[in-house]
């Protein structure tokens, strides 16, 4: 079964680059994962289809709101660490996801 992860930032641009690098890292390591990036306004549309929601560090103040939105969907929610987000490090984000 593939792990399904959604990255979320303001407009989906930064998270899109991070998702691309993380998919490349997963392919290299042969990790079965589906990883996508969307803007925060689209998150609710994908809750039935994901296992993990990762939000950008600039949205950390809204973590509780995202956790509430994910109630009932069995979706884990976490903030992408600043060092991973800031360096767009797909390898480290993949490690972070796998540790969840």
Task: Explain what this protein looks like in three dimensions.
The chain is α/β, with parallel strands linked by helices. It is 41% helix and 22% strand. The chain is built from 4 helices and 4 strands; from the N terminus they run E-H-E-E-H-E-H-H. It has helices at 13-29, 63-70, 82-87, 90-99, and strands at residues 3-9, 33-39, 52-55, 76-79. A 4-stranded parallel beta sheet has the order 2-1-3-4, sandwiched between helices. Helix 2 (63-70) links the parallel strand 3 and strand 4. Helix 1 (13-29) crosses helix 4 (90-99). The longest helix has 17 residues, at 13-29. The model has no long low-confidence stretch (mean pLDDT 93).
Report the oligomer.
single chain
Helix residue percentage: 40-55%
Radius of gyration: 12 Å
Largest sheet: 4 strands, parallel
> Order of strands in the sheet with the most strands?
2-1-3-4
- Unreliable parts: none
Overall average pLDDT: 93
Shape, please? globular
The counted number of beta strands is 4
Helix/strand/pairing class, anyone?
alpha/beta
What is the percentage of strand-forming residues?
A: 15-25%
Order of secondary-structure elements: EHEEHEHH
**Termini Cα gap:** 16 Å
Give the number of helices: 4
